[in-house]
Amino acid sequence: MIQDLLHSSPGLSNFVIFFLLATVFLFVILGFVTYAILAERKVLGFMQGRYGPNQVGGRWGLLQTVADVLKLLLKEDLIPKAADRPLFILAPVVAFAPAFMVVAAIPFTDRLQFADIGVGLLYYIAVSGMTTVGILVGAWASNNKYSLLGGMRAAAQMISYEIPLVMSVLGIALLAGSINLNEIVEAQEKGWFILWQPIAFIVFFIAAVAELNRVPFDLAEAENELVAGFHTEYSGFRWAMFMLAEYVYMFAMCALITVLFLGGWLPLPFLGFIPGAVWFALKFSLVVFILIWFRATFPRIRADQLMEFAWKVLLPVALANIFLTALLKEFLNIF
Amino acid sequence: MTISGEFLAFISLALVAVIGGVLLLNLTKVVHMVVGLVFTFIAIAGIYILLSAEFLAVVQILIYSGAITIIMLFGIMLTRHNDEESDSKGGGWKKVLLFLGVLAFGAAFYIGIYNLDFGTEPAALHEKNTEQLGVALYSDFVIPFELMSVLLLVALVGAIVLSRNDGEKEGDKE
User: Transmembrane region positions (chain A) (predicted)?
Assistant: First the structure.
């Protein structure tokens, strides 16, 4: 449907249709973020032997996040006197906009996709790099040493881990012969890439957790060292924008892992009668759960270990994986 | 000229690019300038997409808006972060010369572009853009490509030498 719309002549009605679709999609993602936060708190609670939210909205705390968001939106809009005002206002927008842009390129099923971009994989990685600029600018504009330290850490970490992230994906690009996300999923009909590319999967997953600034790589927001990291001076809805960007990236990254390694909407053998959207949702939820599980399990890594791990472990392993994949593809002709 | 969607997109992207460039020149704080520059880079990537060079556009965002901007921000923040440029007032002669320079630049570009002919444009540029680039790069342009990699290697080694030079004592300890 989107494809036909994209090829039709531009006009006001098309603009309205696109605008409405994007709005609907934004609300779907907001719904995901609301319940991802609740799920995170609940799962963390169970793993730590407590209940988690259980007051607002029944015994499962179903309205807890809604209440939290309402509180955030009603808060006074604070801008510190010493802050760099225009950049302070601009930074959350710059951080959030790419998060929403990358989701448009992800194919949820063979029909349900917003933009079928030829260089979809590279598009994701390029556009998600823009958030780093937003974080850094926000950290600088706050005019606070903890913010600046957190922002510097976030930027250094995100650009370091972007390299193993891209390198590990190259193996998949070699096997699929394409960097279009639809074609990558279709190439997995013979077997998901987690089976053909286990090394790439491990490297990609670790780098993805680091890109998301989540435990054990959450040095950018290490509470005991930096108060709150790059968003120390932010509050109310500007802070909510940063949080939203973080969780939308979690959504996008989990969807990307599902598409790249777990076969996207493809079913398991003999279970093809279950629709693709359900398969995608199942795999996606599994990845989200593993991320939350990580957060409950691992201690935070040290700053020097962080950089050494990226450059001395992940990068060589990813390079070796590319080499191995090229050899296998060339000599064994499996694909 | 008819107003099509492409034309509108080009005009808005070009406006963003030009405004970003003007902001880069006119703002006084260095970090603000870099943010202006980011908008120029992104707008140029958009223009690449209009020219059906999607791979180039994505790489433009990845390298320029992402990596280079962050390196510049790091450089600015690690040195002095709250210095403002003060306006220097040039004399009347300087302004006249500047105006003549702008005129000459405009005239040179107008003459250069007006009768420019790139030949006929291949029709299927947008299909398998990445593959076409790859084939061209590894068949027709292998030698320039390899020379570029040597150049980058030299830059890399140079950077390492520069950064190790002032810490010779620590280097000896290891």
Answer: 15-38, 87-109, 121-142, 163-181, 193-210, 247-266, 272-294, 306-328
Beta carbons of A251 and A32 less than 8 angstroms apart: yes
Q: What is the CATH number of domain B5-127?
A: 1.20.120.1200
Kindly report, residue by residue over B55-91, the tens digit of the pLDDT. 888 888 888 887 888 888 877 777 765 555 555 556 7
Domain ranges of chain A: 75-332
pLDDT at A268 over 80: no
Model pLDDT for residues B2-20, shown as the tens digit of each residue: 666 778 888 888 899 889 8
Six token digits for residue A228: 């709150």
Residue of B nearest to A15 (CA): B5
The Cα A307–Cα A315 span in angstroms is 11
8 Å CB contact of B61 and A140: no
Of A9, A137, A179, the CB nearest to B35: A137
d(CA A148, CA A106): 33
- Give B 84-123 residues with CB within 8 A of chain A: none
Contact predicate A266/A279, CB 8 Å: yes
A119:B54 CB<8 A: yes
Question: Quick one: what percent of chain B has pLDDT higher than 70?
Answer: 79
Measured distance CA(A254)–CA(A211) in Å, rounded: 12
Establish if B135 touches chain A: CB-CB under 8 angstroms. no
| Whole-number pLDDT of residue A335 | 55
**Cβ–Cβ of B67/A148 closer than 8 Å?**
no
- Mutate which of A89, A140, A145, A161 to test chain B, going by most B C-beta atoms within 10 A? A140
* Both tokens assigned to A275: 């629709």
Partner-chain residue, chosen from B55, B69, B81, that has the shortest CB–CB distance to A133: B69
Domain positions in chain B are: 5-127, 128-165
* pLDDT band (50, 70, 90) for residue B125: low
Q: What's the pLDDT at B150? A: 93
The more confidently predicted of residues A87 and B150 is: B150
Mean pLDDT, rounded, for A177-203: 83
User: Do A197 and A128 contact (CB within 8 A), yes or no?
Assistant: no
Helix ranges restricted to H, chain B: 5-26, 30-50, 54-60, 69-78, 92-114, 129-139, 142-165, 168-173
Greatest C-alpha distance within chain B = 71
Q: pTM of the entire structure? A: 0.82
